[in-house]
Amino acid sequence: MTAIHPFRVSVPDATLAHIRARVEAYPWHAMPDKSGWIYGTNLEYMKDLCAYWLDKYDWRKHEAIINNFSHHKAAVNDFELHFIHEKGSGSEPLPLIISHGWPGTVIEFLDIIEPLAHPERFGGNADDGFDVIVPSLPGFGFSSAPKQPIGPRRMAKLFNQLMTEVLGYERYVAQGGDWGGAISSWLGFEHAEACIGIHINILTMRNPDNPRTAEELAWADEFDRQQIMEDGYRTQQATKPQTLSYAMMDSPVGIAAWIIEKFYSWSDISGDDIESVHTKDWLLTNIMIYLVTGTFSTASWIYYGRREEGGRVLSASGKRVEVPTAAALFPAEMLAWPPRSYVDRLYNITQWTEMSCGGHFAALEQPELLVKDIRNFARTLRK
After folding, report:
1. What is the pTM of this model?
2. Which CATH class is domain 4-382?
3. Is the terminal CB of the chain with fewer CB neighbours within 10 Å at N or C?
4. H runs (alpha helix) in 67-145
5. Helix axes 110-117, 367-382, angle to 10 degrees
6. Strand pairing partners for 325?
7. Active-site residue numbers?
8. Nearest residue to 95 via CA among 281, 374, 290, 363
9. pLDDT tens digits for 205-252?
């Protein structure tokens, strides 16, 4: 079995000082004087965020919060994977691997790890407990970087090895949104000998036979229309990620603006107030993980990697994910869900939950709804 090493987040003072200096030196006077969010990240909000970054934000405080969890690293093939591992309550906690996406990190899940692992501490039943495993995607955060782009299909293989060969689990459940939804789909599709069920809060995969019914065709037309204004970043990162890296490598403000735009656009916020859902402290801590690890460039490679792996289609023959699948539909998801008939041709859907609120970042926006839905699904698998 592969050796597992304990890990603690400990960023050198010199790294923090460099980031601070770059934020202080940002040439705000050169920015176009346009208000609002219509052209991209709001200038006034960025100025306010960066002032907070310099005057009030405390990385060491949040570093300590991150280190409250049990972090590890392990070699899996050519990668050193970082992961949080929280052993669950109850007599038989069910192993659950949760994977994040871009532009997120493992800190998306800090508020749901304990409720999932120890439900009795939150008014629940200890027998609903999970062994919760939260890895940093290869090239993201504290996991090592690939030498060349890799996509979600290969990441799924690595995560299956982490669960079975490194941690020694014979069976487990996978959950994910964003890229985690794609990774979980591949786990259920290609690693069903160990992955006994998946829970996804996004649909990133596509049917090879395309929409069939009038309802599905209407969804496809509306989906394409909605994605027109979201395709810019995706096209850049899927085709020329290296070019973007040069611009971002030494610009904390640039990276922050690139990421903040997505948390604004993809969340179920009130009006134009991004902080109705996300605090400055959380936004900056997520951004800081990209900065202190220098992984913005390699994280964006996953889009290129998916292109090389064949894109969004699981199987050209139309074969679907046959392990039990739970779909959690949050209404403000940036990738609008298709009709159930379309999804049923991709997955063996055994639980379909249409949520009352929430967006793309479900664990952050509606943690209680997400945890409840995962628990309900897992009860059907524990039997």
Report:
1. 0.96
2. alpha beta
3. C
4. 110-117
5. 40
6. 198, 349
7. 178, 303, 360
8. 374
9. 998 888 899 999 998 898 888 888 777 777 788 788 788 778 788 899
